[in-house]
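Milestone M4 deliverable, item 7.
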Amino acid sequence: MIPVLVVLAKNIRSVMASEKEYKKEISAGIIVYRKTKAGPKFLLMYHGGGYWNFPKGRLEAGEENMKAAFREVGEETGIKAKDLFLDKDFTSTDKYFPRERGEKISKTVTLFLARTNVSQIKISFEHDGFAWSTFREALKIMKYKGSKKILKQAYKYLKI
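Output delivered:
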């Protein structure tokens, strides 16, 4: 009988070896919300094909997560950094492995949380639309488990 620890070690080495085949990509974004009578409304960007997510994007060379997050929100929504009130006690990270144009990607996304009073959004060429959604509405339209998990974390954090 093979000890469980040895089997786990073999599996971990296998995963680590297979991750080396992936192109690494780091992104950052912000879970933007507005306070309303119905509770917090979260800003979701529509990418087409039923894909809704938070404003986020890749870090540029030498750029830090938070700076990239503010830049991406500005580029994708038109919301300026001065109109975002960052909650410094909340961050969440998601890691997933998409394929883009046949290439394996190991993607790590760091998301921050910020309130805004801005309701008008100027979407970028990257998106087909946007929505200010309640927690329940957002859960219904979001496609990926990792994004839903982060939304749940943010909502729970805001309810405390």
